[in-house]
Amino acid sequence: MLDATPPPPSKYRPVLSQAQAPLTLQTQVMDEQGEWRTQSLACERPLTIYLNKREILTLMTLGEDPEALVLGYLRNQGWIHALEEVIAIQVDWEVAAAAVVTQPLQVDLDERLSQRTVTTGCGQGTVFGNQMERLQQLQLAPWPLKQSEIYHLLDQLSQRNATYRQAGAVHGCALCQANGEVLAFCEDIGRHNAVDTLAGRLWLDDLPEQDLIFYTTGRLTSEMVIKAAQMQISVLISRSGATQMGLELAQRLGLLMLARAKGKHFLVYSGQERLLLDAKPQRLEVSAKKEHRHD
């Protein structure tokens, strides 16, 4: 479920629809005993983006916050560079389309559409243009983080994931601060959709963009690292794992990247020098006899 701070009244906002769709539906399933029960299913629906009447692509999404998803997607792809460039985003679920109207773009649509890479993100995320060139221009702040702050943040995040707890089949992503405050949280079918939605919320809700932590329940692939870095985020935490290219990019950009973060356990894949181990959990000593008995 989306969780974000309301924007200040003076902040510029484009004209936005409020087109949130139902997130779950009920179905009948049979369990291993042959008994029938009611089960929630996470919804999945297509959303085709039209930019100034030009069809861009179709995303498969939960539909939790489609306007922010579309805005964040265009931002992370480098199609728009400021919220003020966007005049309107109108989502209509009856035709499964999002119409985006902007000021004259600073990019060549034909060139960007010709440079399309299909990535391995859930639902086949797409990357347009040469994002690696833009990454070379990034300068991310290497601020330190305490182990105790990680544990506090994970505890705060354990109370989220409403759709996942009800129906499963979705990923959750969050923008957080080291003090444990969760600035925005959202869930979607694909983790790349969730991070794009957060990128949109950064602009729409005028959230602080300094010393942010990005959290995801999904894998830290190259696509996820790129999207987080484009939001000037230099700390990434995943409840799942990381890929080889995701790690290479994190190391190249100087990111602090943690994976397998659950409870008191985590693995630091890059940026180890930025983490202060101030709350090491007690190491469990298990005797050989006990290990043999539990085998």
From TrEMBL:
**Keywords from the named record:** Cytoplasm, Molybdenum cofactor biosynthesis, Transferase
Q: Which GO terms describe its molecular function?
A: sulfur carrier activity; sulfurtransferase activity
Provide the family line.
Belongs to the FdhD family.
Function in brief: Required for formate dehydrogenase (FDH) activity. Acts as a sulfur carrier protein that transfers sulfur from IscS to the molybdenum cofactor prior to its insertion into FDH.
The protein's matches in PANTHER family, at most eight in alphabetical order, are given as: FORMATE DEHYDROGENASE, SULFUR CARRIER PROTEIN FDHD
Asked whether the UniProt record includes Transferase among its keywords, one would answer yes
Provide GO CC annotations from the record.
cytoplasm
Q: List, from the UniProt record, the residues annotated as the active site of this protein.
A: 122 (cysteine persulfide intermediate)
Which GO biological process annotations does it have? Mo-molybdopterin cofactor biosynthetic process
Keyword Transferase recorded: yes
Name the chain's protein: Sulfur carrier protein FdhD
List localization entries. Answer: Cytoplasm
Q: Which gene encodes it?
A: fdhD
Q: Which Gene3D superfamilies match?
A: 3.10.20.10, Cytidine Deaminase, domain 2
